[in-house]
Amino acid sequence: MPITSKYSDAKVEQILAEVAAVLEKHSAGPELALMIAGNIATNVLNQDVAASQRKAIAEKFAEALVSSVEDKKH
């Protein structure tokens, strides 16, 4: 069953394009871009998620990230 998001694809793509433009403006290579993405994730978890739920959500986030980059065998 596919995962359904409460956010529209258009909204996600718009924000992603804006973030990508900022990274490009600053000539951020892959290492810096990933470091910034990690820092954003950490800040969101620490500022917007209850302490009691942070580890579980971080683990789910990590699982989703790994899943999204694994080679899919068809």
From TrEMBL:
Domain of life: Bacteria
Pfam families in UniProt: DUF1414
HAMAP family hit by this protein: UPF0352
Family: Belongs to the UPF0352 family.
Protein's name in the database: UPF0352 protein TW81_00920
The organism of origin for this protein: Vibrio galatheae
